[in-house]
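Extended Data, panel c. Modelled sequence:
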Amino acid sequence: MADMLPKLFFVHFRPTSFVAEKRGEIVGFVIGFVSQTLPEEAYIHFVGVHPEFRKDGLAKALYEKFFAAVGKLGCRTVRCVTSPVNKGSISFHRRMGFIVKDSVKVVGDVPVVEGYDGKGEDRVLFSKMLGVEYS
């Protein structure tokens, strides 16, 4: 997993990027930052959890650490994006209290922003208000 994490994230986004280790090995991470354009918003850019550690609450713990960090920096909203084919990510974000941005295009039961990352690159856009409870 460590080879997935360019050093620049930990140089430029250190206060808002976190890793989880077990026996000296990285088993999970969340890379995010505070928006320079909209300083009351934060963005989760890159997340990963080793398959052996999924379903153990590690991703939830990493997200909560991120929420706490950006909340202390004045952020009130967290945003992130995923692919419409990544059903696990969509389900996880919904469980974490993220709302899917409404769109005219719907794939299954998921609103999808057509061409968000370029032609043929549709995406699911999420937002979460900090301080709002989820279940």
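The chain has a mean pLDDT of 91. This feature is highlighted in the accompanying rendering.
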